[in-house]
Amino acid sequence: MNLWITMAAAGLATFLTRLSFIYLLDKITMPDWFRRALRFVPAAVLSAIILPELVSPNGSMDISLHNTQLLAGIVAVIVAWRTRNMLLTIVVGILALLGIQLLMGVL
Fold first, then answer.
1. 44-65, pLDDT tens digit by residue?
2. At 21, which helix (H) or strand (E)?
3. pTM score, two decimals?
């Protein structure tokens, strides 16, 4: 029973934390420079999550040509830079990873 209470409390805390930001955004007027800065938060968070997986796929730093995830990530970055299309970037990145792994005999 303690596990269920803990899970419910954690869920409620998460919900209330997110709700507070949604609720407060209507009540507080933020400066324009702050609103402009907030546009970069999703890209920064996504980069912070993805980059460690690309450069250390097995838990140790690997920036060699044998790192299939890094190579596919480079392809995906180029596609994102040139097209600015998120769905195309994801699809090309996945296909690049599969293709590179097949070529290198990893799969």
1. 998 999 999 999 988 889 999 9
2. helix 2-27
3. 0.67
N- to C-terminal Cα distance for the chain? Answer: 44
Give the residue among 46, 24, 48, 99 at the shortest CA–CA distance from 69: 99
CA distances from 6 to 2, 10, 11, 12, 69 (A): 6, 6, 9, 10, 37
| Distance from C-alpha of 85 to C-alpha of 68, rounded to nearest angstrom | 22
User: Residue 55, Cβ neighbours under 10 Å: how many?
Assistant: 15
**DSSP code of residue 29:** P
Residue with tokens 């970037």, as numbered in its chain: 89
